[in-house]
Design a protein that fits this description.
The chain contains four helices and two strands; from the N terminus they run αααββα. The protein is mainly alpha-helical.
Amino acid sequence: MATTEPTDPRATLRGGLPDRYLTPEDLVTMFTLPSVETVYQWRRKRIGPAGFRVGKHLRYDPAAVRAWVTERTALEDAA
């Protein structure tokens, strides 16, 4: 049985996440959230992945999002 290798080696490093900074809309799509307001609430409450501003735009590092997901999964597995 042949396995297919990812065409972009960076995809393996990022765990399949895009090789660009993510927007709040990207997070809504990734986590099937009700709206982008949920992402902004996470930011205000400091419970979501760490984001940063580029001018007036909010962006997320894919590695930080992956780390946040891993942390949340570990917390739930420990409970």
